[in-house]
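pls ignore typos typing on phone
DOR + seq
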Amino acid sequence: MRTLIQNARVIDPSQGLDQVMDLLLEDGKIAQLGKSLPAQNAQVIDGTGLVAAPGLVDMHVHLRDPGLTHKEDVYSGCRAAAAGGVTSLLAMPNTKPAMDSPETVRALLERAQAADAAVYTAACVTKDLQGEELADLAALKEAGAIALSDDGRPVVNTRRLLEALEQAPSLGLTVTAHCEDLCLAAGGLMHEGEISRKLGVPGIPAAAEDCGTAREIAAAASIGAPIHICHVSTKGSVALIRDAKARGVKVTAETCPHYLLLTDKALESQDADYRMNPPLRTEEDRLALIEGLQDGTLDAIATDHAPHTPQEKADFLKAPNGSIGMETSLAATLTALEGELTLLQVIEKMSTNPARILGIPAGTLQVGANADVVLFDPEKKWVVDPEKLHGKSKNTPFKGMELKGKVALTIFRGRIVYDGR
Ligand code: DOR
Ligand code: ZN
Ligand code: ZN
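k done
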């Protein structure tokens, strides 16, 4: 099958490309890039006014499959991905059962074959995410896991963290770390600061994250191993990562669209859709994250897509942490970073860099690469209506907001998986 995308602004950070041209896809691969390519036998897509970029790579997604499929499952999660321009994703292992056995990993990857995106999974560092007993990392790799994480929690026992960091490079696994000091965070529901004090709601101090980030960096540095820091939300963590990079520590890091566009002010509504962990922080933190993206301290933007049902989110004080994000990630990011990052830099953070960090075949439009493409209108404004989203859950912190930038078409392995035109 041939598809010709005509006259699009093709942006591919992997080739330093930002130019209006045509893009020919054939048999699930990128076949040709150039001006006025011949259209014969091809399905023609008019890309005029649209950006064509490598499909987004979301390296932090809670698919909830197996065991929590009332919130999301691999198929609904990948429909949400497609609607957001995401063609590859990394699933987090806090499922039920947790992704700590080869059987669970194999079963998810098997189910994912029929989904609308490339699903990769992280496996647990420790058995049942309990932080004490190391999982069989080699067996998990053999089963198809590409990363390790205890996400949802830190690896509680630092000795286990170090063992995982030691083993991971030779196994070809990326360790992605949820950085949190559980004692400092205990009982907190939102960022600890002026607003939490005004509301009388227990807070999670920035130090809970920063102490975790410092531990992770120190552990990785002590053995020269790489580590990836998840969902950075504080100015302090940006500074720690910047310093570590300057010292040659092999650290990479991601932040999330909600930290770039929202602050703890949103919590004044006492609506649990604005509650996630780490929590929305202050304006000062938000600006530090943008600076971190600009100077390369932060390599990637990932969503931490964390679906929960409306019933679970109904009570502000009792609701679980997390918000969905895949369908809004590009729009929220473009809205937050307008005038701060170029489009090429945004695609780099949302596709090329996460693909490189994970070592997966994505994030590029080079001839011969998988035909995973997102077409979007960077100027189109739209209002987020939770009822119109494609996943199972509705807990978006962007509800009712006008965002600028809209996915028009998502192509996965040469096949249109979402058409929002
Ligand atoms: O907000 C969050 N939601 N943070 C986490 O660490 C876990 C995640 C979830 O699984 O819901
Ligand atoms: Zn986490
Ligand atoms: Zn997470």
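The radius of gyration is 20 Å. The longest strand covers residues 2-12. more later
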